Amino acid sequence: MTILCYHSVEPDWESPLAVRPEAFAQQMAWLSRSRHVLPLADALPRLDARMRLPSGTVALTFDDGFAALHEHVLPVLTRLRLPATVFLVAQTLTPAGRPVDWVKGAGTARLTTLTCDQVLEMQDAGVDFQSHSWAHHDLTDLSYEECVRDLRASREFLSDLLGREVTQLAYPRGLHDAGVRKAAAAAGYTHAFALPETAEVSGPYAVPRVGIWRGNGLLAVRVKEARPYLPLRTSDPVARSARRVKAVVGKVRARA
Ligand SMILES: [Zn+2]
């Protein structure tokens, strides 16, 4: 009854963002046995007024488009015939590319994102791709015009690359405010996904998802899947640290 949000799946990156491959395979096997895993496009019309999926249904999403998805996620999804959506940072797919500089911490220097060829191969295998903005900026830091420009550029670039209309957006770090939600609509998206740490206002431009992190066992996934609006306090280190950084930056700015 919820939309799950993964980032990477790989053995060597010791980060909350990187679920171990064995854990991931176990989680997917359980979901395929016990739940109806819907393609995101089919899940959207079934969301109730509180943006909750019917009991027994779930949808899978992956943020950032890490290269490790090709090796560690695609074979599992293919074997179990599970639908999933990957949200791509459009600029990473341009000829100039973009380093993964939005993730801080140990072991991040070697991180890479999917190539265009890998994206198209995965799309042929049934994986759905949508937008995670142009450059993974915190959208709440941009002006309204900058935000519309960023989101529209991503939507147009990805629609062109994928050969079909991209209409869904996952906010970088799940962060949004009223201006960002309005910009997402103006840029042509029909839905946008958050990653709330506590209950927040939900709607088509703030569809909540629940993060699955490294170290979460099958039990944690089962609890989270069943209780989408009560995230475990330990479950969201990324959004929490992003908010902390923002609070500090705000204080520094106020002092300057
Ligand atoms: Zn992200």
Question: What does this entry look like structurally?
Answer:
The chain is α/β, with parallel strands linked by helices and 256 residues long. The protein has one domain (2-255): Glycoside hydrolase/deacetylase (TIM Barrel, Alpha-Beta Barrel). It has nine helices and ten strands. The strands form three sheets. Strands 1, 4, 5, 6, 7 and 10 form a six-stranded parallel β-sheet that branches. A two-stranded parallel sheet has the order 2-3. Strand 6, helix 5 and strand 7 (128-131) form a beta-alpha-beta unit. Helix 6 (144-162) crosses helix 7. It is globular. It starts with a strand and ends with a helix. The protein binds zinc ion. Zinc ion (ZN) binds next to loops.
- How many strands, which pairing sense, and closed or not: the largest β-sheet? 6 strands, parallel
Say what the CATH topology is. Answer: TIM Barrel
Apparent shape? globular
- Helix-strand sequence: EEEHEHEHHEHEHEHEEHH
Bound molecules: zinc ion
DSSP summary: helix tally: 9
Count of discrete structural domains? 1
Radius of gyration (CA) equals 17 Å
Helix/strand/pairing category: alpha/beta
Helicity, as a percent range: 25-40%
CATH class group: Alpha Beta
Name of the CATH architecture: Alpha-Beta Barrel
Number of E-type strands: 10
Average pLDDT metric: 89
- The proportion of strand residues reads 5-15%
EC number: 3.-.-.-
Protein name: Polysaccharide deacetylase family protein
InterPro entries: Glyco_hydro/deAcase_b/a-brl, NODB_dom, Polysacch_Deacetylase
GO molecular function: hydrolase activity
